[in-house]
Amino acid sequence: MTLSCFAVSEQLVHYRKLLSNSIAEFRVQAHFDFGWDFGETQVVITLEIPLSTALYAARLAKQNGAYTILTPAPAEPFPPGGFADVDLLVPNENEASTLLNEPPNLRDPSWLASRLQERFGLKHVVITLGEKGAYIADGDRTEAIAAFKVSAVETPGAGDCFTAGLAFGLYHRSSLAEAAAFGCLSAALSVTVPGSFPSFGTLTEIAEFAKANRFEIPAALRAFTSLSAASTGDDARDGVEESSCLKESIAEKTLRP
Description:
Structural class: alpha/beta
Oligomer: single chain
Low-confidence stretches: 1-5, 9-38, 232-257
Order of helices and strands: EEHEEHHEEEHHHHH
Radius of gyration: 17 Å
CATH superfamily of one domain: Ribokinase
Number of strands: 7
Mean pLDDT: 76
CATH architecture of one domain: 3-Layer(aba) Sandwich
Strand order of the largest sheet: 1-2-3-4-5-6-7
Number of helices: 8
CATH topology of one domain: UDP-N-acetylmuramoyl-L-alanine:D-glutamate ligase
CATH class of one domain: Alpha Beta
Shape: globular
């Protein structure tokens, strides 16, 4: 299978390693001209690019049947209907408050998630909570997802790593709760490694990290981490391809709204 998960941002460093050597590599670039001939089913977008470009990417993705994930950073107040082409919104608490034009730190995650759903007509919302984990709203179902307790060295990049893990889980048909738990596991590893870029773990590294710390990998994703941990180098790539996972692939084009 070819790469079915695509990320749009001005940074080429986001989502770098999570899926490399075993599934796929998330690459990010400021502008794309989506030909949609390479089979994306999932598009991850941030607001680190011009807002018009981000919303255009979401609209184009939806028109071509992709599932769209938006991390609204940096955030700004949005009018109702502003995320009409977004399937899953992934803000942190402060970003959620900003989107709603609310003062920060005054509302709990359940209130924020509910208001985001109502205001923007969203079905799926995940609010990241740092060392407290995440809060999901999946239609009418809500759940607090606990963080994995670790001794943090550095936290920059943890949110991006969470989103990569979340997107990976959703691509492999995990529930939103399981995907968020895998995002938390990916972020937990990242904060134990100095430097943002080096802290993005591969599936092999995440599996080894979970085993060493006796952390539970969500059931729907154990097969993929086990496959990766059991393989190295070219054998890993061959094994993944034979197992109908995604092989590493990068699409780089130019988006013009």
